């Protein structure tokens, strides 16, 4: 043993403090998300990475990004990701899709807060100055004519405030997109793509593959949009091949088109009758997301069938029977002895729907099952005359009527992405195509289509 090592050993034994070991942190195992693994040091100074030519705004954003993820990444990798984030945010740079997804997910909260502050600052500095200069140039007549602008013009001004720097042209949401204004509305199971293409006036087709002829064991199907093959699929039969091609087409189109999905846990205006009149409340359970109740251990019939040897599933030798109970209709258009006769005043409900139509409330209006069939039919007719959308969900005594406002898919994108309207953001989820991920990093999370096999 060398003299130096012996001396160090004696000093340690004598109580002399030695240099503390470098603090190390083990990264969380998140390989799928692109996070680092193994052990790395936290003993490095974020501020040492500021360059002399970097502006205060750029550095504050890059510094916040590194501080937020310092415990999750190695130093070199995090510095690179932070610079990538700055390049995407300020210069619109593009990177491989995996990198852009990772950076967008990491910067979601940081970017949203930065854009909110920037919007407020730009609105005060440039828009207000532009309006003042315009009023001085055009004089009092232009200033007096401003209140007479149509609501459409007013909304256009709001869009310019949100998306423009110093009075430029608004951003075109569909610029350079492969399928143009095609927007996917994720509802309706297998009819999703066909319905979305019909709204956008695009041609949609599923056909047997022309390049790969079918065999006895394998069938091939291709999906076309505007006569362009976007996906192919194969299966043991034509049905399974169509399903495989549909799933592949959905993935391809979602990477090139905007996707919209209704929030199943959105707030709904619940309208129900009671002995004292009509109650109007707010609920998180929408009629289109409520499933029909199934048999469970609390049901007497369920217990009887279990005693007879039933182990669950459908009835029959091959368990091909239905699993849920047969629905029944509750006859509610006749009142019994002692019932309170609640006369329906259609004029009051017409006024209720009219007020709902004239408001900016985007929540659904849900009429509960204690309204009779004839009453629901009247509401359907009233909604149709007012330009509202009405639909019924459930069977028998659990049937509900849902009345909603009609909005276009492009309007949803404008309100959610451009104006960040909280009434629309609470109601709809939006996924942007990869080509627009650098503009809206908070909306890159994938949306899934439910009931895809229907």
Structural class: alpha+beta
Integer tally of domains: 4
- CATH fold descriptor of the largest domain: Ribosomal Protein S8, Chain: A, domain 1
Rg over C-alpha atoms, rounded to the nearest angstrom: 30 Å
For the biggest sheet, the summary is: 5 strands, mixed
Helical residues, percent: 25-40%
Gross geometry: globular
Succession of helices and strands: HEEHHHHHEHEEEHEEEHHEHEEHHE
Number of strands: 13
Across the major sheet, the strand order is 9-8-10-12-11
Distance between the termini: 77 Å
Q: Count of helices?
A: 13
Strand content: 5-15%
Mean pLDDT: 75
CATH class designation of the largest domain? Alpha Beta
Low-pLDDT stretches are 1-11, 13-37, 125-130, 139-144, 146-167, 327-342
Q: Any idea what the CATH superfamily of the largest domain is called?
A: R3H-like domain
Indicate the CATH architecture of the largest domain.
2-Layer Sandwich
Organism: Drosophila suzukii (Spotted-wing drosophila fruit fly)
Domain R3H: 343-407
GO molecular function: nucleic acid binding
Domain G-patch: 297-342
């Amino acid at each position: 043993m060398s003299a130096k090592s012996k001396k160090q050993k004696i000093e340690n034994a004598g109580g002399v403090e030695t240099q503390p070991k470098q603090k190390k942190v083990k990264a969380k195992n998140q390989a799928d998300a692109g996070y680092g693994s193994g052990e790395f040091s936290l003993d490095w100074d974020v501020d040492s990475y500021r360059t002399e030519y970097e502006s205060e705004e750029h550095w504050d954003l890059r510094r916040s990004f590194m501080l937020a993820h310092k415990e999750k990444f190695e130093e070199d990798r995090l510095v690179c990701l932070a610079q990538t984030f700055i390049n995407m945010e300020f210069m619109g740079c593009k990177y491989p899709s995996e990198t852009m997804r990772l950076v967008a997910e990491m910067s979601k909260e940081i970017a949203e807060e930065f854009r909110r502050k920037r919007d407020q600052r730009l609105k005060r500095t440039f828009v207000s100055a532009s309006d003042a200069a315009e009023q001085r140039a055009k004089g009092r007549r232009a200033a007096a004519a401003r209140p007479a602008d149509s609501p459409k013009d007013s909304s256009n001004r709001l869009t310019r405030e949100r998306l423009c720097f110093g009075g430029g042209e608004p951003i075109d949401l569909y610029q350079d997109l492969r399928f143009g204004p095609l927007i996917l509305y994720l509802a309706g199971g297998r009819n999703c793509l066909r319905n979305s293409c019909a709204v956008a006036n695009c041609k949609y087709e599923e056909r047997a593959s022309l390049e790969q002829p079918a065999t006895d064991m394998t069938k091939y199907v291709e999906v076309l949009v505007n006569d362009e093959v976007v996906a192919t699929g194969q299966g043991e039969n034509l049905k399974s091949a169509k399903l495989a091609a549909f799933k592949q087409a959905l993935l391809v189109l979602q990477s090139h088109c905007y996707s919209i999905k209704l929030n199943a846990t959105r707030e709904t205006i619940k309208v129900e009758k009671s002995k004292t009149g009509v109650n109007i409340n707010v609920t998180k359970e929408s009629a289109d997301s409520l499933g029909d109740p199934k048999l469970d251990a609390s049901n007497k019939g369920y217990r009887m069938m279990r005693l007879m040897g039933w182990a669950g599933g459908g009835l029959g030798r091959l368990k091909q029977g239905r699993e849920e109970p047969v629905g029944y209709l509750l006859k509610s258009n006749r009142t019994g002895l002692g019932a309170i006769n609640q006369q329906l005043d259609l004029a009051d409900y017409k006024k209720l729907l009219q007020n709902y139509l004239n408001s900016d409330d985007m929540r659904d209006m849900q009429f509960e099952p204690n309204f009779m069939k004839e009453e629901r039919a009247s509401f359907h007719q009233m909604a149709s005359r007012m330009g509202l959308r009405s639909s019924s969900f459930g069977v028998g005594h659990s049937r509900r009527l849902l009345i909603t406002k009609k909005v276009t898919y492009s309007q949803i994108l404008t309100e959610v992405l451009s104006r960040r309207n909280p009434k629309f953001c609470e109601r709809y989820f939006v996924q942007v195509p990869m080509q627009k991920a650098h503009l809206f990093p908070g909306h890159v999370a994938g949306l899934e289509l439910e009931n895809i096999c229907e």
